[in-house]
Amino acid sequence: MNSDHDIHGVHDTQGVHANRAIDAETAERAVAILESPQGTYSSLAETDSAIAPLEHVLSATPDGPLRTTILSNLGLIRMARFQLTSARTDLDSAIACLREALASREPYGSHPALSATIPNLISALHTRAEFTGEWDDLDEAIAWGREAVVRLPPELPQRAAALASLSSALRIRYERSQYAGDLTEAIDLGRQAAADLPPDHPRLGPALSNLGGALMASGQVEEAVATYEWALYRFRAAGNWGGTARTLNNLGGALTQARRFVEALVAYEEALEEFRAIGDVRGQERVTHNLAVARARLPELVFKLDETPVPPEPEPAPAPDAGHGA
Questions:
Q1: Measured distance CA(15)–CA(165) in Å, rounded
Q2: Which of 129, 141, 168, 213 has the highest Cβ tally under 10 A?
Q3: What pTM was estimated for this model as a whole?
Q4: Mean pLDDT of the residues in the chain
Q5: Are 300 and 314 in contact (CB under 8 A)?
Q6: How confident is the model at residue 194 (pLDDT cuts 50, 70, 90)?
C-alpha cells in the first residue's frame, strides 16, 4: 500500500554506522530505510521489518537531526501499519513519533524531515479523530496547520502540503459542525495548496483529492469532477495505487451527482479492480456498496462484467474516502 504522506530520508547517516551500540547489519538496514525516498508497505511483514531496525537505532541516537529523521520515518511507517491493521495502538504510536519529531528545537524550514512532519501529523491527528470520534484531535490538527502556515517558508513544498492537510481537517470539521466558514476556508486553502505544489510533487494527488471533497461538500460538482480527474492523473503518474483506488471511488460519487452515470459506473468498476489489486478489503466493501446502490436504481438495465452499461439516471450519494496520507 502506498502512503499519501512524505517519507524523507537523510543523507548524513554516518551517525548510524559510527554508533557502536548498533550492530552492522541493523545499521545498514536502517540507513537503507532512511535514504530511500518514499516507502511502499503492502504487508505487516514489510512494515515490521522496517520498524524494528529504526526503533533499535532510535534508542541509541541522541537528540539532533538524525533522531528527528528517524522519528519522522517511524511515524509514517506506523501510519502505514495502521492502514493495514486498523489498530488504535499503531495510530497512537505514529502520532507519538511525529509529535516527538516536532519537539526538536531546530527551525522547521531548516530540516526537511521537520517540515514534512507537520502535514503528516495533521493528517494523522484527523485520521484518529475520525477513527475514534475524539474530536479534540481534529482541533489540534487545525492548530498545527495554522502554525505551519506561519512558520514554514512559503517556497517550501512542505508548506503547501501542510495547507492541503489543514484544508482536509477543516472540511471534516465542517461536516460535523456545518459551520460554513470552515468549508470556505477549506476550499481556499485547498486551491492554494494545489497551485503551490510542483506538478510532479507526490503530495499533489492527495491535495487535489482533498480539494475535490471540499468542492463536493459545497455543491460545486463539476469542478469537483475535474479536480478528482486531475488527482487521478497525479496518483497514477506517481504509482500510488491506493490513492488511485480511493480517488476513483470519489470520482464515481462526483460523476453521479453530476448525472454522468455511465462514467460513474465505469469509475466504480475501476476502483473495485484497484482495491482488489492492492488487497484492500475495506476499500472493496465501500465500492461494492456504492455499485450496489447505483445498480439498484437501474433495475431496467442488465449489467455484464465485460460490458459498459448504458444507463438512464440514478442518484446514489456515496460517502467519500478521506484522501490522505494521504
A1: 32
A2: 168
A3: 0.69
A4: 79
A5: no
A6: very high
